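User: I'm preparing a small set of examples for a lab meeting where we compare how different chains pack in three dimensions. I only have the primary sequence for this one, and I'd like the structure in token form so I can line it up with the others. Please keep the answer compact; I'll paste it straight into my notes.
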Amino acid sequence: MRGIEACFDRIEHVALMEGNRAYRRRKGSPTWRLVRGSDNFAVLVHGTEDNTSAVREQVDEVVASTGLRLSPEKTRVRHLKPCTPFRFSDTETR
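Assistant: Understood. Below is the structure token output for the 94-residue chain.
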């Protein structure tokens, strides 16, 4: 019986209670979230520029595995300040 108990001893109980995203942020690790529009999507990354580049490469691989590709003209990496709205389209209303 000690074998099963040992597995549970190694679980990060704080991560289970706090939620994985909050736990990773508190530890300084990057997190990401996918936001879907009608025929677009955005990947929001909380981390460094290197973290963002790594996630973008992974997204490229996943999209390529479906036979599609990300358009270089439409694919952007932007820094968003907290509570900054963003739009999927390139057009801005003034």
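A couple of notes for your slides: The chain has a mean pLDDT of 77. The radius of gyration is 18 Å.

User: Perfect, thanks.
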